[in-house]
Amino acid sequence: MLCYVVFNAVQVMVWWIFDSSNHFWPIWSIVAWGIGLMFHIWGVSRPARVG
Protein backbone atom coordinates (compact mmCIF):
# COMPACT_ATOMS: atom_id res chain seq x y z
CA MET A 1 0.00 0.00 0.00
CA LEU A 2 2.86 2.36 0.79
CA CYS A 3 4.41 1.66 -2.62
CA TYR A 4 1.10 2.50 -4.28
CA VAL A 5 0.87 5.85 -2.52
CA VAL A 6 4.53 6.81 -3.01
CA PHE A 7 4.75 5.75 -6.65
CA ASN A 8 1.54 7.53 -7.60
CA ALA A 9 2.54 10.65 -5.69
CA VAL A 10 5.81 10.72 -7.65
CA GLN A 11 3.89 10.35 -10.92
CA VAL A 12 1.60 13.23 -10.00
CA MET A 13 4.59 15.41 -9.10
CA VAL A 14 6.30 14.58 -12.42
CA TRP A 15 3.08 15.44 -14.26
CA TRP A 16 2.68 18.68 -12.30
CA ILE A 17 6.28 19.83 -12.83
CA PHE A 18 7.06 18.69 -16.38
CA ASP A 19 3.82 18.27 -18.32
CA SER A 20 2.45 21.39 -19.99
CA SER A 21 -0.77 19.75 -21.21
CA ASN A 22 -3.98 19.64 -19.23
CA HIS A 23 -4.33 15.87 -19.67
CA PHE A 24 -3.90 14.20 -16.28
CA TRP A 25 -2.15 11.04 -17.52
CA PRO A 26 -1.28 9.56 -14.06
CA ILE A 27 -4.98 8.74 -13.62
CA TRP A 28 -4.56 5.61 -15.77
CA SER A 29 -2.04 3.93 -13.50
CA ILE A 30 -3.74 5.22 -10.33
CA VAL A 31 -7.07 3.69 -11.34
CA ALA A 32 -5.69 0.45 -12.82
CA TRP A 33 -3.34 -0.26 -9.93
CA GLY A 34 -6.03 0.83 -7.46
CA ILE A 35 -8.50 -1.72 -8.87
CA GLY A 36 -5.90 -4.47 -8.59
CA LEU A 37 -5.01 -3.41 -5.06
CA MET A 38 -8.69 -3.33 -4.09
CA PHE A 39 -9.20 -6.91 -5.31
CA HIS A 40 -6.06 -8.04 -3.51
CA ILE A 41 -7.16 -6.48 -0.22
CA TRP A 42 -10.63 -7.94 -0.65
CA GLY A 43 -9.21 -11.42 -1.32
CA VAL A 44 -6.87 -11.31 1.65
CA SER A 45 -9.31 -9.87 4.17
CA ARG A 46 -12.42 -11.95 3.50
CA PRO A 47 -12.98 -15.01 5.67
CA ALA A 48 -11.74 -18.35 4.38
CA ARG A 49 -14.28 -20.83 3.06
CA VAL A 50 -14.76 -24.01 5.02
CA GLY A 51 -15.99 -27.05 3.21
UniProtKB/TrEMBL annotation:
InterPro entries: 2TM_dom. Residues 3-45 form the 2TM domain. The chain crosses the membrane at residues 25-44. Keywords: Membrane, Transmembrane, Transmembrane helix. This is 2TM domain-containing protein.
